[in-house]
Amino acid sequence: MENNIIIDLKNISVAFGDNQVLKNLNLYIRDGEFITLLGPSGCGKTTTLRIIAGFTAPDEGQVYFEGKLINNVPPYKRHVNTVFQRYALFSHLNVYENVAFGLRNKRMKEKEIRETVKQMLELVNLKGFERRHINSLSGGQQQRVAIARALAVNPRVLLLDEPLGALDLKLRKDMQNELKNIQQRLGITFIYVTHDQEEALSMSDTIVVMNNGIIQQIGTPKDIYNEPKNAFVADFIGESNIVDGIMRDDFVVDFSGHRFDCLDKGFAKDEAVDVVVRPEDVDVVPLEKGMLKGTVTSVVFKGVHYEMIVDIGGFKWMIQSTDEQQEGDKIGLYIEPDAIHIMKKSEYSGMFGDYSSFSEEYDELSNAEEPEEADGEEG
Amino acid sequence: MKILSKIYTFLVFFFLYIPIFVLIIFSFNESKSTSVFTGFSFDWYLALLEQEDILNALKTTLILAVGSSVISTVFGTAAAVGIDSLRKGWLRSATMGVTNIPMMNPEIVTGFSMMLLFVFASKLLGISDSMGFGTLMIAHITFELPYVILNVLPKLRQTDRNLAEAAQDLGCRPVQAFFKVVLPSIKPGIITGMIMAFTLSLDDFIISYFTNGREFQTLPTIIYSMTKKRVTPVIYSLSTLIFFSILLLLILTNLIQYLNEKKQNKTSD
User: What share of chain A is helix, strand, coil (3-state, %, to 5)?
Assistant: First the structure.
């Protein structure tokens, strides 16, 4: 076993009743890294976190902390601390006592407690809030207290369960930076759970994409975005056009009735594959210069660019461009070889990446369910 | 319309409070008459102090009320925690049903069946005169329990389940976590439950009547036995005193609540 692995999950399976939440999950976490468990609601990411914290016992499998089996170690003896989704602050205590809670359990001297609390409140920019009542704080401030409280006991690993979910967009962006800064300054391991792919991309060293209790891909944010392993990952992280293609040879792929050069190799000759093209990687060109030709069916102004749906032979592509097009325009599309990513066929093939049923409202509807991420923990 | 509603409100309060006012006025009456106010005096209050059986009953009632409400609060809170931890399903519904029945059940049935049980149990154990303070206490705890449970349960449901986990996360054993974090969060429910249990015990006549035995009298049972004979204004003075004690208690709880809210608002500025 490598030296710097701090947490190692081996063959973890969990079911709540008939609901199989985790299926034979294997994951190791390096000391000092910022790792994010990313996936839709009910994918098992929170359950994974709870297993590491000790609140949920796995039905099968082993949890190792620095090489030692900790399956039977209760939460209060583990060197990990949690920042809960809804903060779980002790509202009968003031800010000072909340942060001091863990220190008092360690029977620290009052003087040391005072020092540590002061340090922690400075770390999260809440200097002078000691005497404030929890209910008098804003969501962002409560969030900071929760982080300070968990960090005060000097954990080796900090677990964060969708900590920014309840904050508004601006505040969330600020907190993302701040969390990343805190993690780098303290040098401890952060395990972060979120369903927000943008959050995951901007903060993490490593991203673990999960769905239906199975890890889909583990990698750096760049790997995950540029080299998604299957259609699920490609669709979940950012926007993707996913079309059926056939690998004619190394570096040559056919899709949408055209032959393209690409940078992928190692597939069988004439193997059926999934082809991913990101909307921002497609160039709009005059009709006669286009590799592909299509009709614009909708245009939405997004601020930095226009988002267009383009019908190419019945398949709806999403294209992002800074040049405005009109609905009904016929345009040509040009795709560079490095904009094309080839994936092996998987169980998710054909389920994602077509924008024919695309609507903004639908996207928001499916996001609204997210806070319910209970992972079947209903007591 | 406005005038009508005012008249209506006045009538409601009039009929609610006029009997109590009459009672208070006549407790200060010089003579025994319940129709003519002959003059102001404290005679009946002085007479009350000399009635040893009433004072004894008052003592018993207070001890009983404090004792039974404290015990039922401890048991009831524990039970509520247990019920709250049950998964939704037949077991939980069944437990809730069993909890609710004593409240719905007519008191006379509860009282009578308790008496039967105590008689039966004492025969079985060979005790001759078993009815007394002990049986009263058991009976009172029994009928107070559901009220405590029903006051604590909603508070538990409102409490974030992660709260106890957060405490354990920060180094508390599960039991410590309960006392340090969950208990403060459900405290308001526990206190209301206890006050309710206390007043119910103070107030109870029917169940006490069946379970107190020959010797033991609570305030309600002794008042009842007094009414069998000729009613003396001593009862008025006693009732007046009880009324003002309750009024004082009410004002106090409201005052405490008000001060607490003020304190909370102050810290949130």
Answer: 30, 35, 35
CATH number of the domain bearing residue B98: 1.10.3720.10
- pTM higher than 0.90 for the full model? no
**Domain residue limits at B36:** 1-41+237-269
What is the number of alpha carbons within 13 Å of residue A15 lying toward its C-beta? 7
Record: contact A86-B268, CB cut-off 8 A: no
Across the interface, of A74, A82, A133, the residue whose CB is closest to B264 is A133
For residues B122 and B142, state if they share a domain: yes
Is residue A4 within 8 A of residue A31, CB to CB? The reply is: yes
- Rounded to 5 degrees, what are φ and ψ at A123? -60, -40
Q: Which residues of A touch B171 (CB under 8 A)?
A: 76, 102, 105-106, 153
From the candidates B161, B170, B187, which should be mutated to test the interface with A, based on the most A CB atoms within 10 A? B170
Identify the CA nearest to B46 among candidates B233, B190, B188, B195. B233
Domain annotation covers residue B118? yes
Cross-chain CB nearest to B171 (options A89, A90, A153): A153
Torsion of CA B150, B151, B152, B153, to 10 degrees: 40
Answer yes or no: CATH 3.40.50.300 is held by domain A5-226: yes
For residue range A150-172, what is the model confidence (pLDDT) as tens digits? 999 999 999 999 998 878 888 88
And the tokens for B37? Answer: 């106010």
| Number of independent structural domains in chain B | 2
- Give me the interface pTM, i.e. the ipTM: 0.81
Residue from the list B85, B88, B169 with its beta carbon closest to the beta carbon of A82: B169
Cα A89 to Cα A115, A292, B163, distances in angstroms: 21, 56, 7
Q: Indicate if B9 and B37 belong to the same structural domain.
A: yes
